[in-house]
Q: What sequence folds into this?
């Protein structure tokens, strides 16, 4: 898959993943926003806090993507380079299908992946308390950066995808594209402190459509891998 199309696909996955973000992070966003002094929760001031949370969150995704892309880059120096890269792309396609099933509510195997991240989160979570309640934009940014490491099957699926980029820069940009895709829903939840209507975002139909589209992207990724493998052979 061309790299530009990969970034676009990651952005789309982020947008479609909004149905998951509302359910998992809606309460967190509301808590953070309502913790800001009431006078600063209106107009431009509210935008400053919400953007700080989310830009820092996306920055943490970008760093994680660069690290995973770096691992893929190191792996590319192993024997059978092309085969290894195709194997990573195959894995990312399978994870995307698993993510689609997760979003649609058809299979929750990704919860096991989230459980792995819980141990890592336990080491980070105590540091978040230093910034709560939020009283300044710098606090909001710091908290958003830590929040970006919250265990999430959606994020982990795209991280696996970033490994197949086999390049720190492309891995980071892929995760940044994904993060930007989540931005509309997350900003909406932040500005309206949980008052964003869940009727359509969290509806069964919406979740299944979003999940089905992500599965389709995963299938496209797998077809790309199979085509590349046949060409290589």
A:
């Amino acid at each position: 898959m061309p790299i530009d199309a990969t970034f676009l696909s990651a952005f789309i996955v982020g947008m479609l993943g909004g149905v998951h973000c509302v359910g998992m992070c809606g309460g967190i966003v509301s808590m953070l926003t309502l913790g800001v002094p009431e006078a600063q929760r209106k107009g431009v001031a509210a935008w400053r806090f919400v953007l700080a949370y989310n830009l820092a969150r996306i920055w943490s995704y970008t760093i994680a993507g660069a690290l995973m892309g770096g691992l893929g880059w190191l792996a590319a120096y192993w024997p059978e380079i092309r085969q290894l890269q195709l194997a990573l792309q195959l894995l990312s396609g399978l994870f995307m299908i698993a993510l689609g099933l997760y979003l649609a509510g058809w299979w929750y195997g990704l919860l096991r992946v989230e459980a792995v991240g819980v141990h890592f989160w336990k080491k980070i979570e105590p540091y978040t308390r230093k910034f709560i309640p939020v009283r300044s934009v710098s606090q909001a940014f710091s908290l958003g950066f830590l929040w970006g490491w919250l265990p999430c099957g959606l994020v982990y699926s795209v991280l696996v995808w970033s490994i197949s980029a086999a390049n720190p820069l492309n891995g980071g940009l892929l995760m940044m594209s994904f993060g930007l895709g989540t931005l509309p829903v997350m900003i909406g939840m932040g500005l309206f402190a949980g008052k964003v209507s869940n009727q359509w975002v969290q509806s069964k139909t919406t979740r299944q459509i979003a999940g089905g589209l992500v599965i389709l992207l995963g299938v496209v990724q797998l077809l790309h891998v199979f085509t590349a493998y046949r060409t290589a052979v």
